[in-house]
Amino acid sequence: MATSGNKNINAKLVLLGDVGAGKSSLVLRFVKGQFVEFQESTIGAAFFSQTLAVNDATVKFEIWDTAGQERYHSLAPMYYRGAAAAIIVFDITNQTSFDRAKKWVQELQAQGNPNMVMALAGNKADLLDARKVTAEEAQAYAQENGLFFLETSAKTATNVNDIFYEIAKRLPRAQPVENPSGMVLMDRPAERAASASCCS
Amino acid sequence: MSSDSSSSTSGDDPTDQNPNPNDKSIDATEDRLQSIALTEPDVVEASSCQEPSNGHRKWITERVPWSRGNPRGDRVKLVRAGKHQVVFLVKGPIYLVCISCTEEPYESLLLFLIQLIMIWMQMLLILTKSVNRCFEKNPKFDMTPLLGGTDVVFSSLIHSFSWNPATFLHAYTCLPLAYATRQAAGAILQDVADSGVLFAILMCKHKVVSLVGAQKASLHPDDMLLLANFVMSSESFRQFSNLTCLLASCRTSESFSPICLPRYNPMAFLYAYVQYLDVDTYLMLLTTSSDAFYHLKDCRIRIETVLLKSNVLSEVQRSLLDGGMHVEDLPVDPAPRSGYLSPHLGQHRPVTDSPDRFGEVFSGIGGPAGLWHFIYRSIYLDQYVASEFPSPINSPRQQKRLYRAYQKLYASMHDRGTGPHKTQFRRDENYVLLCWVTQDFELYAAFDPLADKAVAIKTCNRVCQWVKDVENEIFLLGASPFSW
């Protein structure tokens, strides 16, 4: 869940998608500015953190790069539970990976945090000749399901920072404002205030 | 699951796979072991090829027994096909097959079974034994997608059968370190184990720096071998770690993955936090809780801070460069020396001890009395120590041949039919091999083929004394979580 203190926001972000869609490559590009041609298959999930400055705040992403292998699917909730944002990645040259991405969107809509910011990344956008999923098709799907869509290339770095930046901008800024049920009065307000101010 | 590309026959009926005995899918020219695992519906029959006197090869088909109705689910079948031996091990719905063309004698069956069981347990480490339920529900269940991306794990394990003595000794080995250094590492690991971590293991390559288990939890050497193999063979655990940078801030990747320790509990997943602390050294924190990542991350930070402060990581790197016990250093005088430390172990290495001395002084000789190599296994510690390879056996091929000889020796000492022997002395054109088994230890030693028997025996006594003299540095002593 995104938590804010002053203008520092901590946000858990999870990447989901089929084997070989390029989740780890996107993270490697975003966190390290690097790309390797033959990225090894991820085991379980890898954890990273990266801080991004947007106009009004500093967002510290805690990134879970999950394994796309089938045997880890049942464990995905462990990683997306409480996530403030998700990037669902597919490979534009692989129709199956797009179908798999839709399944992840369905699962997140059913099981995930309802306020989650979801992005759909059509990765490997540099491989135009091998394209199997059109940008229009993916855009239409994203719109129907309340995601925002970008075509990315971890190899050329196209749109990689942009997708994380866009997520950072869309994260809810102040949790209490979003709470429509109003203020809940606490028994010991002074103590609560004290504990809230110490974790900056 | 296939061990390598040339044996990728998983899912094929072996009767169809190799109708022609000269088919290169079983490559008789290569001296190697091929192993594959098949699932029950895949294997119904196996074929053996016999060569009658008329020179025409004839295939004889034998039925491989199914495991149904066998509560333990283990069946073994040996099929000879010309020069090849095909060993089937049936573990419930899983068939494990190894094809050998090394013309090993019958005693090697035990070794093949050990290796097939290791492969099976490596699979359990990835999937747990509950994969059997998938076959109960659907006999045509295809396990291949579940093992996606793990080819390297199995090929690395199969490769280690020819270089890692832990695969047949069922013991682990430690990186040589000064007693105080290992104690410092153990103390901080114990600290985190008391805070709800089931096992905390610090390793450098396949050697243990220190390890600690929570109360009453014991870790089997086989599980350590399989876990280390899994972590080291998967590049994913190293990804993003900038290996030229030793600062913690340069590394951004931490892994959290479900794994199963088959000897600990084959039915359940544990969760492993894995991080490389430098190029070769990695920390594994195991827990039963899937929510423990942030706690384990905090533990790692605490551990790493202490390890850096107490110079453990730099000592580990130094030990890696120095190597372990060198047969050239075997003390000549067998009398016990109080406070004696091998020049290669611990911090007491004399400055005059230049690293290039082997090349000049000991070239082509090995140790005293023609001693080339030894493995000492402490039975009550579940640990072994193997000497470094001297120049007479410095090529990987020679080393592999020596390990194979040790394996045969081990098999003949542990074969239920004839053993256990107390001592064995063998001489062939390659070595003199000496094996000595007592209640406390097993010693395997290789000598120059011309070595004198009486002198070799005397030398083995000196090796045992030497190991005892330096046991503080080569073994992890005390506070061991192992059950013995």
Can you tell me about this structure?
The complex is a heterodimer of chains A (200) and B (484). By secondary structure, chain A is α/β, with parallel strands linked by helices. Chain A contains seven helices and seven strands; from the N terminus they run ββαββαβαβαβααα. In chain A, strands 1, 2, 3, 4, 5, 6 and 7 form a seven-stranded mixed sheet that branches. The relative contact order of chain A is 0.19. Chain B has 484 residues and is of the alpha+beta class. Chain B is 30% helix and 22% strand. In chain B, helix 2 packs antiparallel against helix 4. Mean pLDDT of chain B is 78; it is low at 1-71, 242-249, 336-343, 346-364 and 480-484. The interface between A and B is medium-sized, with 24 and 27 residues. Chain B: Pfam families: Fuz_longin_1, Fuz_longin_2, Fuz_longin_3.
Give the helices and strands, then pairings.
The complex is a heterodimer of chains A (200) and B (484).
Chain A: E1 3-5, E2 8-17, H1 23-32, E3 45-54, E4 57-66, H2 76-80, E5 85-91, H3 95-111, E6 117-123, H4 135-144, E7 148-151, H5 160-170, H6 175-178, H7 189-197
Parallel strand pairs in A: 2-4, 2-5, 5-6, 6-7
Antiparallel strand pairs in A: 1-2, 3-4
Chain B: H1 14-17, E1 33-39, E2 45-50, E3 58-63, E4 74-81, E5 84-91, E6 94-100, H2 108-127, H3 131-137, H4 151-160, H5 166-169, H6 179-193, E7 199-204, E8 207-213, H7 221-233, E9 254-259, E10 270-276, E11 281-287, H8 293-309, H9 312-322, H10 357-362, E12 371-378, E13 383-386, H11 396-414, E14 423-427, E15 432-437, E16 441-447, H12 453-469, H13 471-474
Antiparallel strand pairs in B: 1-6, 2-3, 4-5, 5-6, 7-8, 7-11, 9-10, 10-11, 12-13, 12-16, 14-15, 15-16
Strand order of the largest sheet of chain B: 8-7-11-10-9
Q: What is the N-to-C succession of helices and strands of chain A?
A: EEHEEHEHEHEHHH
Mean pLDDT reading of chain A: 86
Q: Please work out how many helical segments of chain B DSSP would assign.
A: 13
Overall form of chain B: globular
**Could you give the order of the helices and strands of chain B?**
HEEEEEEHHHHHEEHEEEHHHEEHEEEHH
List segments of chain A where confidence is low: pLDDT < 50 over at least 5 consecutive residues: 176-184, 187-200
